[in-house]
Amino acid sequence: xxxxxxxxxxxxxxxxxxxxxxxxxxxxxxxxxxxxxxxxxxxxxxxxxxxxxxxxxxxxxxxxxxxxxxxxxxxxxxxxxxxxxxxxxxxxxxxxxxxxxxxxxxxxxxxxxxx
Length: 115
Hints:
Distance between the termini: 9 Å
CATH class: Alpha Beta
Oligomer: single chain
Structural class: alpha/beta
Number of strands: 6
């Protein structure tokens, strides 16, 4: 159930969006160690963002997971997602924040219930 919600001020075309979704799904699943079938990625493009006082290309992400997170994993996720955004959208890693949430099972719903 890892869920990565990404926001960027860059408008993203359908092909690039699809590539980012696929790459991020594979990366999150591999790094956290959960099946791709549980991973959800959301990409919100063209969102107004000011970072360090400018509106140059930037991004923000939130990754929520039930377990699987920790200092080493979070560092690898930050590095890998930042790399994807740099390759696909030319967003410098210094203009990307990502926040990690380790959610308790009853605080995340799925299929009409909770985990």
